[in-house]
Predict the 3D structure of the following.
Amino acid sequence: MKTDPIQQFAEWFTDAQKAKEPIPESMAVATANSEGKPSVRILLLKEFSPKGFVFFTNYESRKSSDLKENPQVALTFHWPRLERQIRIEGKVKKVTRAESQAYFSTRPKGSQMGAWASPQSTAINSRDYLNERVESFEQKFKGKKIPCPPHWGGFRVVPERIEFWQGRPDRLHDRFLFVKEGKKWKWVRLAP
């Protein structure tokens, strides 16, 4: 086990890719609103570094609303072929507008249109409504570069706790917890 949890994450993430884990960048993202009501969904990790773990979304979605009310968040990566999971807890902050725009420009055109067309997390009358909105935005941006919507961008989870879990026989699993203390990480082994 490395003494830096970001380096350890990078090693395990690479292992998951090599093991051909299905969508190794998928992660459960848990939020809670100001009343403490939890919500969890699967998202894709788009970047990680010592600064944190980044995902992108509609800033008007339920998850974004939760994060505005309560910036605490938890992530879980699960790689069953390797019998590994990583749990991350921390606070979110928005990435810069430039970072959001840079990532948005790399998305497929259909995903860019979807970001404009979908009023994420709101009730809609039919699939036709969504299709009509896509068509409307296709006309609006026909022959043009599709800009990043003002209501869309990234969040960076700044980790405070990172736990690495490795499955072992007889449920005597290895668990290593890293806790951020100031600018340094302290780690301990946990009982399974």
